[in-house]
């Protein structure tokens, strides 16, 4: 028994020394390990269900409820993509993911640009998440930015793009976006802020809703602030540039 324990201790010591002497390979091994573990813990089956079934709750909703110690009412009214104003669809695409229909889930050009910009600034000043990545985060993950969560996000994103059609991804996304405390989805947001269905949203209303998506708990689409007016004009200009 002592010999067996001695051999195991010796093997472990040798392994630890190898890791110390091969730092780059060690990083690759550890990342690969987390990817493998993460892959088998991902919601593969539930993604297939999203083809025909609308999610009743999301991880982000659960997180917000937990932050309020259970004292938060979720308001969400599901609406099919065909009943959402084209202005809203156009506004969210130009605001959040201009190449949504072209990429395979990850916009690698934006990732590179974001990395270079953040490196120059020495802090995170530009994001590169696509609509699919944002949806994955909202549905399955927390708002944490730890490396393992980002790896999970990447894997689920690529899987989701293989399983679901683009319009279905966009439909779920627009029905899952957070637009204020307890307000989720474009229909609930449209009725709360503009007193109308998402089907009737005008161009400027859609632009204002899209403008606040990055910080929905800090800004409301109906407020008259310098920041919101600036953001709204950016969205409107991008829509105009595309003939929308």
Which strand order spans the largest sheet, edge to edge or round the barrel?
A: 1-2
The amount of helix comes to: 55-70%
Looking at CATH, the homologous superfamily of the largest domain is Biosynthetic peptidoglycan transglycosylase-like
Biggest sheet descriptor: 2 strands, parallel
Uncertain segments: none
Number of helices: 12
Gross CATH architecture of the largest domain: Orthogonal Bundle
Global geometry: globular
Nearest-integer average pLDDT: 84
CATH level 1 class label of the largest domain: Mainly Alpha
- Could you say which structural class the secondary elements and strand pairing correspond to? mainly alpha
Instruction: Count structural domains.
Output: 2
Q: How many strand segments? A: 2
In angstroms, what is the radius of gyration? 22 Å
Characterization of this structure:
The model has no long low-confidence stretch (mean pLDDT 84). The chain has helices at 2-21, 23-40, 44-49, 59-67, 86-96, 108-121, 131-140, 147-163, 166-176, 186-194, 203-211, 226-241, and strands spanning 75-76, 183-184. It is built from 12 helices and 2 strands; from the N terminus they run H-H-H-H-E-H-H-H-H-H-E-H-H-H. It has 2 domains: 1-41; 43-241, Biosynthetic peptidoglycan transglycosylase-like (Penicillin binding protein transpeptidase fold, Orthogonal Bundle), CATH 1.10.3810.10. It is globular, with a radius of gyration of 22 Å. It has a two-stranded parallel ribbon with strand order 1-2. Helix 2 crosses helix 8, helix 5 packs parallel to helix 11 and helix 11 packs across helix 12.
